[in-house]
Design brief:
Elements lengths: L1 E8 L8 H9 L8 E10 L5 E9 L3 H4 L5 E3 L17 E3 L3 H12 L5 E4 L4 H14 L30 H12 L16 H17 L3 E4 L3 E7 L2 E7 L3 E3 L3 E3 L6 H9 L4 E3 L2 E10 H9 L16 E3 L5 E8 L3 E4 L9 E4 L8 E10 L10 H17 L4 E5 H6 L15 E3 L8 H17 L8 E6 L6 E3 L13 E3 L10 H19 L1
Parallel strand pairs: 5-6, 5-11, 6-7, 11-23, 19-20
Antiparallel strand pairs: 1-3, 1-4, 2-3, 8-9, 9-10, 12-22, 13-18, 13-21, 14-15, 15-18, 16-17, 19-21
The structure holds flavin-adenine dinucleotide.
Flavin-adenine dinucleotide binds next to helix 3, strand 6, strand 17 and helix 12.
Length: 515
Amino acid sequence: MITVKNIRLRPDEKESLLKEKIASKLKIDSKDITELVILHRSLDARKEAVFVYEAAVKTKNENKLLKHKDVNKYQKITYQIPLVKTEERPLIIGLGPSGLFAALKLVSSGIKPIIIERGKRIKQRSEDVRRFMEEGILNSESNVQYGEGGAGTFSDAKLTTRIKDPYISYILDAFVNFGAKTEIRYDAHPHIGTDEIRKIIVRMTDHLIAKGATIYFEERAEDLIIENGKVKALITNKRTIAAEKIIIACGHSAYEFFKTLYKRGVYLENKDFSVGFRVEHPQDLIDLRQYKEYAPYLKKMPAEYFLRAKTTNNKGVYSFCMCPGGFVIPSSCDQETIVTNGMSYSLRDHHLANSAILVQIDKNDYDEGLFAGFEYLHALEHKAYEASTSYKALSQNIKDYLDGSLNKLIFPSSYSLGTVLYDFNKFFDQKLNDSFHEALSHFDKLIPGFIEKGIMVGPETKSSCPIRIKRGADRMSINTCGLYPVGEGAGYAGGIMSSALDGVKTADEIINNLQ
Ligand SMILES: Cc1cc2nc3c(=O)[nH]c(=O)nc-3n(C[C@H](O)[C@H](O)[C@H](O)COP(=O)(O)OP(=O)(O)OC[C@H]3O[C@@H](n4cnc5c(N)ncnc54)[C@H](O)[C@@H]3O)c2cc1C
């Protein structure tokens, strides 16, 4: 097979035209194309909206066609999956994307991990999440952050990543094999939606159990036994489990467990993180600005944006985790705190678009000390709760934030528990407000109406972890043999794909060790 790049279709053209377009590019008869597989599809909306494809095709005389521009030999990626005979059972703490994908990789080699997950299975977890979203009753062990599938379960389930790694297609293939639509294999911005990812995760968990993994749900990792720099066992709130290899995949909210690791001498360090708020706009506005006259043809593909600004006080402000056609959701895991995030369904058909707007926080912005970043974030989450006196989020029109005024919202937020008006100028410190003001004015030049037609809902505090469990090239903690920190909580990933990738690569290292 050969690959053909840069095949362009207008939004009003059907995908069935691809074969003709490829044939004309190769100067062959379309009947000679006997197989066509889409490899990549992206929407280029910079000048006029156009879909750009790459495809692999089977045809006659392929070697002769290699002389054409954008044509190459097709190299299918294959993976080595060695079978390992071992009685050893690595332990995994946390069944979010990093722990889940580490476990999937281990069982594919015949290894049977033991997994400890503090939250519940998705069915029961969904009920706890519903109670919080509709009634404001938070279960601090079963919520948007904790439970089967981890933090990405009640999410947009965007599978976007900028990482180039052959294992990215391995992860996308796994999602497809467990029920995701095939488009995610080639879309530049793959998206599943919370309704679909919940079903997929349940199938993945059932597969792990069928392959011999043991999963203890509603059980919390609380301590480690470390002897002479080597991990020996994990202590949970229900038992002690001997283990020489422990993958720590517990996400960025496991503050208490990080403190225990520190007490046991595991090397941790501070890292930069971000804070901010969500903005919401009518999706039609974003579609019109991004797609222009093609907006009516792209109704099923609500537009996204990616915005960046470097402000004069040297801060990076950026849009993050944009959810077209989605909802801002209550995402707290600790009592009396407010945390916002974004979620959408597979159809992305809600009338509002939302995105986090975040500013980078570095060590100069908060107190000294390893856990000062956590304390800074927690203080903001609790300050929001105190200002609101409930789990209703804080909100303000973007225009009012820039003017320093406070008027009724121009439209109600999608945040299910409702919002209270609050001046974010009084919430963040001066330096952060200066950065946000400047960045929002810049964003309004890129998307006219961004200020006038948008509202803020916040705060958003859990986009990244303020510490890192330092590891070496062997993916083990630099001072605790047998301890493998992975994913977002360990400070090595941010998002579903990068966390899953981190888990897979660590599983590979363990598989190599056990061979
Ligand atoms: C609402 C929301 C929407 C998001 N949307 C997207 C998106 O669309 N795309 C994207 O790429 N990213 C998204 N993210 C971010 C993404 O979900 C995370 O980056 C990713 O889940 C991190 O994976 P992880 O495995 O490192 O940790 P987590 O997913 O946080 O999983 C950690 C797991 O460990 C468990 N755990 C914690 N402490 C313990 C303990 N002591 N003992 C036992 N178990 C423990 C937790 O219960 C949890 O299940 C979203 C996040 C949220 C909250």
